[in-house]
Amino acid sequence: ETCAKIAQLFANDGGYTGPISYFRSFLFKADRDIHVRFSMSQIGDFNFKRYMPRIYKGHQLPIILSDEQLKDFMNINLEEYVNNKHPKNKIELFHDFACFLLHSFMAPCDAAYLHETNITNRNTIVIKRRKTFKQAEIPISTKMEQIISKYRGLSPYGYIFPIIDDKQDKLHKVYLYQMKKFREDLNLWLFDVGKRLGLNFRLHSYIFRHTAISLAVNNGLPVAYVSSLSGTLPENIQKYYYNGYNKSNVEKLIDVFENL
Q1: CA-to-CA distance for 107 and 209, rounded, in angstroms?
Q2: 243 secondary structure, DSSP code
Q3: What angle do CA 164, 169, 172 make, to 5 degrees?
Q4: What is the pLDDT of residues 46-85, one digit of tens each?
Q5: Angle of helix 223-230 versus helix 206-218 axis, rounded to 10
Q6: Number of Cβ atoms within 10 Å of the Cβ of 66
Q7: Rounded CA gap, 136 and 142, in Å?
Q8: Residue 117, beta-bridge partner list
């Protein structure tokens, strides 16, 4: 009850950095501890009002993959990356996970803990984002369905991906240790992929979420709908992702008035 009251204070007034970020992690750890009589559901559905994503200097857009770069990544020869440290099944998991992030608009921490129970009979995935507590419902694309089917049954705990071991997770003092370790390994592999593809920036897992949001809004999907898919505030999408001067948007605008 005390945790719930403190969380409400943070939710109604305050930022998202420093003590509030630590407190959010503390709450999630309490929620996962079977010996603690606390659940995130006690807090209810609230948002950190002043939550803002990373501030980009000069209000630059986040780094995203171009159409060509994305195509190159999707079609890499995975055999070229197999070695003693990274067997084929691990490389496939890395690539599939990155593709899933792109199609689902998810952050790595959300996708790693994605459970079969998050899949609805509407062929969608419903989650509550770990960072903002905002609920998001994402339609399952053909690619997502292929990936889900590929890994179905491999996790004894019902997770979509065989990444998290619930028993091992409880043994680590570091919050979300297994997810963070997987993300670290994934990012190291993506960095290597990016270098081989000749990218002039460091490729990492979060770029696929950035790319998904930018692709969606720049191809005509309403900002409000993309907001509901990604669990990101509409004003943040407009400020950090949305390219209002995209050529296709200008052409569509002209067509609207010319066809009146």
Answers
A1: 6
A2: -
A3: 140
A4: 554 444 444 444 445 688 998 899 999 999 999 999 988 8
A5: 160
A6: 10
A7: 19
A8: none
List the end-to-end C-alpha distance of the chain, in Å, as a whole number: 59
User: Which structure tokens are listed for 56?
Assistant: 């980009």
Q: How far apart are CA 153 and CA 159, in angstroms?
A: 8
Maximum Cα–Cα distance for the chain, whole Å? 66
Per-residue pLDDT tens over the stretch 228-249: 888 888 888 887 776 555 556 6
132-151: pLDDT as tens digits? 778 889 999 999 999 999 99
pLDDT at residue 168, rounded to an integer: 85
Look up tokens 């750890």; give the residue: 29
**pTM of the model as a whole:** 0.76
Half-sphere exposure of 6 (CA within 13 A, CB side): 12
d(CA 86, CA 83): 5
Going by C-alpha positions, the residue among 8, 15, 13 that lies closest to residue 44 is 8
